Amino acid sequence: MIALRYHEATKHYFNRFARSRGYLDWGTQPDPFRRFAGAPHVGLPRDAVAIDVPYDALFARSTGAVPIDAASIADWLRCGMGLSAWKQYRSSRWALRVNPSSGNLHPTESYVVSADGVFHYAPREHVLERRTQLDRDAWRAFSRGRDGLLVALTSIHWREAWKYGERAFRYCQHDTGHAIGALALSAARLGWSLTLLPRWSDAQVAGLLGLDRDQEFIDAEREEPECLAIVTADDPAPWLESDPDSLVAAARASAWQGSANQLSPDHVEWSIIDDVAAATRYPGGSIPSAQRPTPKGIGATSMTHREAGQLAIRARDIIIQRRSAVAFDPRSATLSKDRFLAMLARLQACGPPWDAIDWTPHVHLAVFVHRVDGLTPGVYAYLRDTSVDGKWRGAMRKEFLWEQVSDRLYLLLPTDVTWVGNRVSCDQDIAGDGFFSLGMIARLAPSLAERGEWFYRRLFWECGLIGQVLYLEAEAAGARATGIGCFYDDAVHELLGLSGDTWQSLYHFSMGVPVDDTRLTTEPGYAWETNTEIAGDAEKK
Predict the structure, then answer these.
(1) Tens digits of per-residue pLDDT, 359-397?
(2) What Cα–Cα distance (Å) separates residue 89 from each residue in 31, 385, 533?
(3) Domain annotation covers residue 537
(4) Would you place residue 35 in the very low, low, confident or very high pLDDT band (cuts 50, 70, 90)?
């Protein structure tokens, strides 16, 4: 199986890392912004929408829906895929985004499809680029008059491979999961839902978006289709069965505008990425509704853990202020046990953003607790699906305690794991200096055998969704978090007693009190948000 071979070949070890160039060629650093020269621009309104929606409402689906119009679509994109800030150090200036990305390289592009056509979202300018205007009768037949729009995500593998080499495909999939989560929670803030459409194959998504049009990508880096979703204020279920073929045919018959810009003057080819991308493309189909997570919120459950004043936090503020920490203060205040358990409760597979995906949890957590009040430091297991309890216990070290802390959290080994957390995460201090760090452990080989190699991508998407929720939870708690893509794969498995390819670590994460780099200056993501002009393009970092 190509996906499993790729996964094995791109592991990090104590004595060697997965293959990459081993240095950064700044002369070929990819442009972080894709544009389509010649495509007409559609300006987006700049006013904020649903400003006072509380943070907890994101997960409880308790917000009344706002109309789907130009203003709300613009704010949904701004809070889902827009810029969060500009950073500068001396002459170098770069953008941060609402959706996090490995190395801030941003391989993920987003597209909107509606009755008005197919649009690429350009986050730097906050505009839509109209790639084509669809036949309105074709859209009407597809939508059957329902109110909603489609959003698609793609990946440009070179953006990550420029720095990370062969392991980059993993990071592109993490980032897709983060983007799904960011867009789903941005939609929930407006009272909408975002739901992936399982009938659509990757080839059909490519046809709808014009990604397979060679003449518009001459010398430009190609985009790999990842997923297509419906965004609506109504029941998404009727959209799931709409036939893709007629809409794809309408897109192929349309007149297209715009040519993709080249992001780098030169490239390094990583054939293993091309191979795994081809092997994991989704052929389309449907998934039985019985496998879908229950579409209800968990606000009432997790609210009992919330501290005073939590309801006053505004969702939009938390979404836009999200940052990835670069260092933690190990001498700072600790995290309360109740707050920690509330964060974990957000990861249960019900309500936003979990109702965006159509599979039950396949990813569980090995948690390294460092400084959580009321919890013994040590290694813990958190089961996002309690039905795997026996399988996980049987796969792990026999000497683990499995002392129950909550209905899903178990203490495995009480000990100081500061050094251990640091060591298995490529010796990065950020994994040992925070409140806790964790490894996301997926049921890998059996899942691919049961569903197909295409599910390899979705396991990483699930990890990205977990990370996106934890990012926002950190901000709401007055802390900060960071995703960790660099870890010694088999060292993590050996620590837990896992063998073979049934369970594999796919993503690491850490949370704590950030240490800010005072050398950097910060400006808002968009000039109009503070009436300060921000001119010029992003400089090479």
Answers:
(1) 999 999 999 999 999 999 999 999 999 999 999 999 999
(2) 18, 45, 18
(3) no
(4) very high
* Higher pLDDT among residues 105 and 301, named by residue: 105
List, as one string, the DSSP characters of 340-385.
HHHHHHTTSSSSTTGGGS-S---EEEEEEESSEETS-SEEEEE-SS
How much is the average pLDDT of 253-274?
Answer: 97
Q: Are residues 328 and 264 in the same domain?
A: no
Give the three-state DSSP class for 281. Answer: coil
Longest dimension (CA), the chain: 65
In this structure, the strands spanning 335-336 and 372-373 are parallel
- Indicate the residue type of 50: A
The helix (H) or strand (E) run that includes residue 413 is: strand 409-414
Domain boundary (271, 291, 311) is at 291
Whether omega for the bond prior to residue 100 falls within 30 degrees of 0, making it cis, is no
State residue 132 phi and psi, 5-degree precision: -160, 160
- E-strand stretches of 115-258: 117-122, 127-132, 149-155, 193-196, 224-232
Local structure of residue 324 (DSSP, 8 states): B
Same domain for 129 and 25: yes
Instruction: Give the separation between CA 12 and CA 247, rounded to whole angstroms.
Output: 43
CATH number for the domain spanning 463: value is 3.40.109.10
Q: What is the pLDDT of residue 311?
A: 53
Given 242, 269, 291, the domain boundary residue is 291
> Do both 316 and 371 map to the same domain?
yes
How much is the average pLDDT of 477-485? 96
| Domain interval for residue 184 | 2-291
Q: Do 507 and 389 reside in the same domain of the chain?
A: yes
**Can you point out the beta strands (E) in 184-258?**
193-196, 224-232
Asked, for residue 500, whether it belongs to a domain, the answer is yes
First to last CA, the chain: 38
Mean pLDDT of 143-158: 96
pLDDT, position 535: 36
Residue 522, in any domain of the structure: no
- For residue 476 the two structure tokens come to 């709401």
Q: Which two tokens stand for residue 179?
A: 């983007």
Distance CA 346, CA 300 (A): 11
Domains of the chain: total: 2
> Pairing state of beta strands 521-524 and 480-484?
unpaired
- What tokens were used for 17? 């890392």
Asked whether residue 268 falls in the same domain as residue 404, the answer is no
Instruction: List phi, psi (to 5°) of 193.
Output: -120, 155
Residues 303 and 287 in one domain: no
**In angstroms, rounded to a whole number, what is the distance separating the alpha carbons of residues 168 and 166?**
5
Q: Residue 534: inside a domain, yes or no?
A: no
DSSP 83: E
Per-residue pLDDT band for 339 (boundaries 50, 70, 90) equals: very high
